[in-house]
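# nightly structure sweep
# worker-07 picked up a monomer target from the shared queue
# config: single-sequence mode, recycle default, output format = structure tokens
# input follows
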Amino acid sequence: MSTDDRLLQLRQQLQKASYAYYVMDAPVMEDSVYDQLYRELQKLEAENPDLITPDSPTQRVGEQPSSQFRSVAHNIPLYSLENAFNVQELQQWQERWQRIAPTIEKAEYVCELKIDGSAIALTYENGLLVRGVTRGDGTTGEEISQNIKTIRSIPLKLNLDNPPPTVEVRGEAFLPLEEFNRINHEREAQGESLFANPRNAAAGTLRQLDSKIVHQRRLQFFAYTLHLPGQEDQIQSQWQALEYLKKAGFMVNPHCQLCEGLDGVVEYFEDWEGARQRLPYMTDGVVVKINQYPLQRELGFTQKFPRWAIALKYPAEETPTVVKAIEVNVGRTGAVTPLAVMEPVQLAGTTVQRATLHNQDRIQELDIRVGDTVIIRKAGEIIPEVVRIMAELRPENTTPYIFPTHCPACGSPLVRPLEEAVIRCVNSSCSAILQGSLIHWASRNALDIQGLGEKVVVMLLENRLVNSVADLYRLQVEQLLELERFAQKSAEKLIAAIEVSKSQPWSRILFGLGIRHVGQVNAKLLSQQFPTVEKLSQASIPDLEGVYGIGPEIAEAVVNWFRNPGNQQLIQDLRDLGLVLADQGIDQAKTDSGKLKGKTFVLTGTLPNLSRLEAQELIEQSGGKVTSSVSTKTDYVLLGDKPGSKAAKAESLGIKLLSEAEFLQLLEP
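# output follows
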């Protein structure tokens, strides 16, 4: 292939990938592959400068922003960073800037973890937030001010007595892993496609036209730099800028560090290579900045990058394995999800044998076949995914995978609804759908039926003892004794657990019904606004959309669910069997005199014994309230294992941190 042809091919591939990533929020290429191709293009153009074209990806910062939001010019260009992929390239970067400032033999550097999110520019006038804009192409972005205001770690008003007339703040909006995991669990339960990683989820969230959806997804924000137009002399270093940002009310990454020379930078980089796996958010490298602002101004910018900063990136953890089989799984919503079954491999500290292939379109895009060698990684270091196949290693005589046309569980024809990527079984009597519904109903966050796990559900279905959720409440000890592994004591224990579940609150029952798009949070919102099943079943779409946090998709799903005759019969059966499909309320007298009356709590991390929902219920029953973000109005932060950034912010604000044991002591009479 000629150099001309290769240059054209690289430019087309990179432009397509850049457009898909920045504009469509639908990446078609992993970062490591993009970086490799981009560097090849840079090398070829450096060797053949006469072949550089104005539209080459190396000649501009990025693609044009989407037209769904109003385009806004940045007051100060928002540059991207040059990348280094090893210590040698970091050293070369230092040598380059020293040639411009030869009198500087050694510099101070500020190291900050590179958060894997979306860059945001904020403008404050007289201390008030007036605008939030995406990075866009670096000079023009999209105004998303309404969405920005839903991020609680972004102050609407600066915490300064005499704020400057104008402040420009730059930072990274990101999705904590805990939230990413929660959102994907809910999407999986609702039969929706999963987000590939927290970065894509954050970018897609910021560009939602409905700010209620943004609010529900609980984005966070780390500020990392600021500009004071007309008052630049007030701050003389990056370290001072970070201190200013903290004083102004922003969350700054608590792990930033001031380093003397490159040796300190390398030590910081190596220390965090392993430790970053324990962080509550994704980071893919370290941002290294010259600390002194006068030196930054002397060095200036290239066409694309600041000369005084660089991103030292960690290699993506990927590994090859061989596909042994491709299977499909039918979930409780009827969604049919294909899975690659692979030779077991170690990845990010765990053994991986299965990886989701998402849907039929993804299979066709990959052209994945049994026998293929594939590269896998964990999306967001959580979900195993197939990144690409290595076609050059494909065995002879392989055949393309053909997606089934009929449900593997019940044999019914599969259907692909319009405008959906997911193929579904629509047979409400399908055993796989019923199995998923029963498991969901008994799950910890729904009816919490101890002892009713997947294996027991399968046994009940195989022996035709249940045909609906309501049938669980008709089971008898004698029926269970006929099943393998059930003795008198275990049978009595399960029946007792099923009976106890009748006393679960209306919000849990609503979540357990498994209505599409109705997760735990939405179930609680709906149960508060519609305290009985009758009121909820009679609600119209406008009624439901009037609830803060409930959008048209959720509203339509709820209305359609209650219109179904089979679901109406299920509600009647559950009521007849003794379940209370109404909010029984909290004892107001107890609440008014509760030990936690007027106290505000924030929960973070995994508690040793209590679930988050249980802890929240205890707080509310004792007169307190739970909020999602730490502020000066927070009284306590209830701290579990692997806490998120909320713990660090609480410490910086002097808010008391409680262990589970200390929390329970507060409730003692």
